[in-house]
């Protein structure tokens, strides 16, 4: 029994080293993982698909896809998707949403920002060729088209694409073709958003209920 | 202001001198004018003269028949009050005007300082003239007339998102910080007063409760002063919302402390129960204020649902409901400021969806106008009241107060930040703390509260007032003037002026959904989750009740897109009149560059005829209307009550408004470049023009267009405006998107109506010139715009052929 616990702890520490979470956070996430998978070693798409709270999310499919995307596992150069993910992969995807470290230098911030943006980029770049094409962009917006009209979504995607194109390649000959948003251009257009500090959620350190200072919702 | 001075080159310096001379003259006249009435009003023999008047009148009645009818009579008293109010407002406005006319000055001294100086000067002059200074900063006047517009302006345009994201920090500073300040200052002040053995007796007589009362009055950061200073230093959004939010929310604490201490300083002792009641009262005051505000806000939103037929009075509802919220809250001694903030913030999203674009502009301008006049008046009155007040100068008290205020603020901010930073993701750096501490300006609210004190309960009221004034002057002058250089020195992050791009909006929303989703997967409900729940509730129920018609279902992204489109349209119209806009030449990128070149076999629908989307259609319609209205508006008779029922007249007014805004627009060209997200290119490079034209790919040659171009072409002024036309390509975002067959009809219709418009315009040439001789080139602009529209339309109609370049040579009017 004790040996098993020891092993478990070592396992956690290893994971903590890889993903950057603390062991408490990993313990919490593991608990959730088991809950989602029904006490199995791996999670499948169907497991995530059945989370009730996710049902209303307009980008549910993209979110689930992101978990099974090999590119988000921080082992570079692999494209494609997995069928099932284990705890480690789960944590790796989650680690993109860690809050920025307390005292981080400029370089670390840049790295964190790049990594977060890369995650977003991968969500849009569905075919994994390193470019978000207009078709992909439209599709992403159309995924919300329950709310947005079909035409409007297209118009918006076109306008957004045109904006990217004119920002990054202002002087194009009429025969040139802007294939799509590369990662560099993606970074460029989202420069103003301060992704490194915005794209995060609070992971629980302790098992008790949340301890936040009074946030009224009026 | 500084960009504007940037435009002013040295040569124009001389031309502004006569302006200033004129202004000075007006001022002198005004001053005399404002002195005289006071003299008349307050000279001791007024009553006497009155009696004489009455006698005379009585006599007049007796021999009524004998007197001839007075052709011209003079009665100043009749109009005295409104006249004097107008004079003060005029003085304030002229001061504001003059302040911005003097070059270089706004860069050094904040407006608020200068206005206080003006107030001192005016007060001094009135005193010198031997008159009684009117009680200008009377508490009723201040709290019922001057303060609400400023707070409403702040509440209505409150940036909700950063405010909510930092609500915890703001509340911490506002509640705990203010409490700390009040008790620290009050307590230590009392201690200092007691310590000195050889102190004159009046300080010794000071008890603890008046000290605490004084502390609670002096510790609250003042929104008016903060706004006045922070608007000029353009600090980043986080710091701005922290300091400004604190200044708004600490009102509840101030109100409670004030009433608590005022109540008991007569009695002299406070029990624990009173303290507990005070805490409860704080929650009642704060939450009650928010509740009252929210109720009125929802009422206003609900009312605005039904105003589509009487658009003229739409803005009024916003103002009246907000004011009533303020008054209702004040009635129960709740926090009026919080009520106003809540009211403005709650009603805004719904009201904006309901009212017309023009009403929105009206609201914006009225709020800005009122708040800036109020602010100016407050600072001037502060100066006047300083001269007027019976001062009780006590070196010890004043010095100790100023020092304690500074110390308490610094300790409070540093200590609280230490706690807050444990919970914050984005930590507050030392620099941030410094700015937050240094930005804690005190202002007229403190003075008015001090003014309210009862002399019987507080024998040292005058000493309090003097100390309050000194603290205000110290913070506004010393801190207000040095904060700007300090911000530069410390290289604190400034506000980015750039407008949001579509992409940023898309990704912000995407991120919201993503974070909500990830939280859901994690299985714990953080604030993204609750925000999402709230949004959903809002969309599902609240919007349906409060927003009329289709727009209630409009998602945020579409709303944003529409706003953007509206702006484009306005810019397009304005660019017709602004030769300066030629600097905002867009890039050569057009839809063709991002559309897939060859129809991909998988997606054949991408290569169908271009079509006009609904929004585009609306835009073109707008442009056509603004051309048409010139001829139409003459036929219309003026009707005060149906100003907006008539789209043509509506647009005409809008057009005039835009004309006036042109001046401001010139300044904003830089912004707009950002907004169009396109770097400016040299306006007349032939290759560029060619390329641009080619990107349009006109294969279809439109005869009306040529005709028009020929008539317009010879006019040198119109010709020089050609570059402005080129802003068309960027705006045409979705012309090339696939179409459905029915859109052809729309195009035809446009074509027809446009030709009709052109014909009509041609006929009306002479008449129009006679009607508006002062705007000769507006006509050319209209012509220009017409050409622009035509070009657009022809582009929509044309199927982009493969040999666009060949056609270029045929164009007679472009290089």
From TrEMBL, chain A:
Record protein name field: Calcineurin B homologous protein 3
Family that this chain belongs to: Belongs to the calcineurin regulatory subunit family. CHP subfamily.
PANTHER family noted in UniProt: CALCINEURIN B HOMOLOGOUS PROTEIN 3
GO annotation (BP), single: cell differentiation
Protein species of origin: Hippocampus comes (Tiger tail seahorse)
Domain EF-hand: start-end pairs: 112-147
Region (Disordered): 1-23
Record SUPFAM superfamilies: EF-hand (SSF47473)
GO cellular component: cytoplasm; lamellipodium; nucleus; ruffle membrane
TrEMBL record, chain B:
Matches recorded under Gene3D superfamilies: 6.10.140.1330, 6.10.250.1040, 6.10.250.2020
Keyword Lipid biosynthesis set for record: no
Lipid bilayer topology: Multi-pass membrane protein
Start-end of Basic and acidic residues biased regions: 775-794
Biased composition, class Acidic residues, residue ranges: 805-815
Residue ranges annotated for the Cation/H+ exchanger transmembrane domain, each copy included: 90-487
One GO CC annotation: basolateral plasma membrane
Keyword entries, A-Z: Antiport, Calmodulin-binding, Cell membrane, Glycoprotein, Ion transport, Lipoprotein, Membrane, Palmitate, Phosphoprotein, Sodium, Sodium transport, Transmembrane, Transmembrane helix, Transport, Ubl conjugation
Region Disordered: start-end pairs: 696-718, 754-815
Biological process (GO), any one: sodium ion import across plasma membrane
Endpoints of the signal sequence: none
Record-annotated Sodium/hydrogen exchanger regulatory region domain positions: 584-689
Main localization, broad class: membrane
InterPro entries with a match to the protein in the record: Cation/H_exchanger_CPA1, Cation/H_exchanger_TM, NaH_exchanger, NHE-1-like, NHE_CaM-bd
MF term (GO), any: calmodulin binding
Subcellular location: Basolateral cell membrane
Catalytic activity: Li(+)(out) + H(+)(in) = Li(+)(in) + H(+)(out); Na(+)(in) + H(+)(out) = Na(+)(out) + H(+)(in); Li(+)(in) + Na(+)(out) = Li(+)(out) + Na(+)(in)
Transmembrane segments: 21-40, 109-129, 141-158, 170-192, 276-300, 365-385, 397-421, 464-487
Family listed: Belongs to the monovalent cation:proton antiporter 1 (CPA1) transporter (TC 2.A.36) family.
NCBIfam families given in the database record: b_cpa1 (TIGR00840)
Name listed for the protein in its UniProt record: Sodium/hydrogen exchanger
Lineage: Eukaryota, Metazoa, Chordata, Craniata, Vertebrata
């Amino acid at each position: 029994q004790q040996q098993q616990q020891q092993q478990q702890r070592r396992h956690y520490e290893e994971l903590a080293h890889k993903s950057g979470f603390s062991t408490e956070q990993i313990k919490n996430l593991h608990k959730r993982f088991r809950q989602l998978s029904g006490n199995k070693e791996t999670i499948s798409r169907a497991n995530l698909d059945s989370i009730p709270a996710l049902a209303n999310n307009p980008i549910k499919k993209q979110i689930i896809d992101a978990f099974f995307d090999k590119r988000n596992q921080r082992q570079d150069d692999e494209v494609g998707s997995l069928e099932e993910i284990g705890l480690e992969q789960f944590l790796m995807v989650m680690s993109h949403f860690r809050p920025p470290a307390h005292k981080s230098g400029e370089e670390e911030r840049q790295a964190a920002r790049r990594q977060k943006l890369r995650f977003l980029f991968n969500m849009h770049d569905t075919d994994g060729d390193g470019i978000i094409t207009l078709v992909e962009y439209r599709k992403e917006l159309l995924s919300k088209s329950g709310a947005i009209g079909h035409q409007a979504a297209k118009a918006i995607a076109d306008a957004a694409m045109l904006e990217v194109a004119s920002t990054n390649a202002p002087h194009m000959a009429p025969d040139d073709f802007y294939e799509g948003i590369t990662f560099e251009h993606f970074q460029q257009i989202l420069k103003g958003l301060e992704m490194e500090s915005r794209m995060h959620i609070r992971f629980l350190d302790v098992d008790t209920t949340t301890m936040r200072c009074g946030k009224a919702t009026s | 202001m500084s960009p504007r001075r940037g435009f002013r080159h040295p040569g124009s310096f001389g031309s502004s001198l006569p302006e200033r001379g004129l202004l000075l003259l007006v001022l002198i006249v005004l001053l005399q004018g404002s002195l005289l009435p006071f003299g008349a009003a307050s000279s001791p023999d007024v009553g006497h003269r009155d009696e004489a008047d009455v006698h005379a009148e009585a006599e007049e009645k007796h021999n009524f028949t004998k007197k001839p009818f007075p052709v011209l009579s003079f009665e100043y008293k009749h109009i005295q009050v409104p006249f004097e109010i107008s004079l003060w407002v005029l003085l304030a406005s002229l001061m504001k005007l003059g302040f911005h006319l003097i070059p270089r000055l706004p860069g050094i001294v904040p407006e608020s300082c200068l206005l206080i100086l003006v107030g001192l000067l005016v007060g001094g002059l009135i005193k010198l003239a031997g008159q009684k200074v009117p009680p200008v900063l009377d508490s009723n006047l201040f709290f019922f007339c001057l303060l609400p517009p400023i707070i409403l302006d702040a509440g209505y345009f409150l940036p909700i998102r950063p405010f909510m994201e930092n609500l915890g920090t703001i509340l911490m500073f506002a509640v705990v910080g203010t409490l700390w300040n009040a008790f620290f200052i009050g307590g230590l002040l009392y201690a200092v007063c007691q310590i000195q053995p050889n102190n004159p007796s009046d300080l010794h007589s000071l008890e603890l409760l008046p000290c605490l009362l004084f502390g609670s009055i002096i510790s609250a950061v003042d929104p008016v002063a903060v706004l006045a200073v922070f608007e000029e230093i353009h600090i980043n959004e986080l710091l701005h919302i922290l300091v400004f939010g604190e200044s708004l929310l600490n009102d509840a604490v101030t109100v409670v402390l004030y009433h608590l201490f005022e109540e008991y300083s007569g009695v002299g002792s406070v029990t624990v129960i009173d303290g507990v009641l005070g805490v409860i009262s704080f929650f009642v005051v704060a939450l009650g204020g928010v509740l009252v505000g929210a109720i009125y806000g929802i009422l206003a939103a609900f009312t605005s649902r039904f105003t589509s037929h009487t658009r003229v009075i739409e803005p009024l509802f916003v103002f009246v409901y907000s004011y009533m919220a303020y008054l209702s809250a004040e009635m129960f001694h709740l926090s009026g400021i919080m009520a106003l903030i809540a009211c403005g913030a709650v009603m805004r999203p719904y009201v904006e969806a309901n009212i017309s674009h023009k009403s929105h502009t009206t609201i914006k301008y009225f709020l800005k106008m009122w708040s800036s006049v109020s602010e100016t008046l407050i600072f001037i009155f502060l100066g006047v009241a300083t001269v007027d007040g019976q001062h009780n100068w006590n070196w010890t008290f004043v010095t100790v107060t100023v020092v304690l205020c500074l110390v308490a603020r610094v300790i409070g901010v540093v200590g609280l930040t230490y706690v807050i930073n444990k919970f914050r993701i984005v930590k507050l750096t030392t620099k941030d703390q410094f700015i937050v501490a240094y930005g804690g300006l005190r202002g007229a609210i403190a003075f008015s509260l001090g003014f309210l004190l009862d002399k019987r309960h507080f024998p040292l009221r005058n000493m309090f007032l003097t100390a309050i004034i000194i603290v205000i002057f110290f913070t506004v002058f010393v801190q207000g003037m040095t904060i700007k250089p300090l911000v530069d020195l410390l290289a604190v992050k400034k506000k980015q002026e750039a407008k949001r791009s579509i992409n940023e909006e898309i990704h912000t929303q995407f991120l919201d959904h993503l974070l909500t989703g990830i939280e859901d997967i994690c299985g714990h409900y953080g604030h993204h989750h609750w925000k999402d729940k709230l949004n959903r509730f809002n969309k599902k129920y609240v919007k349906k009740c409060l927003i009329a018609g289709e727009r209630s279902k409009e998602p945020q992204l579409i709303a944003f897109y529409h706003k953007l489109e509206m702006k484009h349209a306005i810019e397009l119209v304005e660019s017709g009149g602004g030769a300066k806009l030629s600097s905002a030449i867009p890039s050569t990128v057009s839809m063709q560059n991002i559309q897939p070149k060859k129809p991909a076999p998988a997606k054949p629908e991408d290569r169908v005829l271009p079509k006009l989307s609904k929004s585009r259609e609306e835009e073109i319609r707008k442009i056509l209307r603004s051309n048409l209205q010139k001829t139409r508006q003459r036929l219309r008779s003026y009707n005060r009550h149906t100003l907006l029922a008539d789209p043509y007249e509506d647009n005409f007014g809008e057009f005039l408004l835009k004309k006036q805004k042109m001046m401001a627009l010139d300044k904003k060209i830089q912004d707009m470049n950002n907004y169009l997200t396109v770097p400016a290119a040299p306006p007349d490079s032939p290759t560029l023009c060619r390329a641009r034209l080619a990107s349009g790919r006109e294969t279809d040659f439109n005869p009306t267009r040529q005709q028009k171009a020929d008539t317009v072409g010879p006019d040198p002024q119109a010709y020089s405006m050609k570059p402005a036309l080129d802003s068309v390509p960027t705006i045409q975002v979705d012309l090339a998107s696939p179409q459905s067959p029915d859109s052809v009809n729309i195009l035809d219709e446009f074509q027809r109506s446009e030709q009709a418009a052109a014909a009509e315009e041609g006929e009306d040439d002479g008449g129009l010139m006679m009607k508006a001789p002062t705007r000769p080139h507006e006509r050319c602009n209209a012509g220009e715009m017409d050409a622009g529209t035509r070009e657009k339309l022809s582009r929509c109609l044309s199927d982009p052929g493969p040999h666009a370049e060949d056609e270029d040579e045929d164009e007679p009017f472009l290089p």
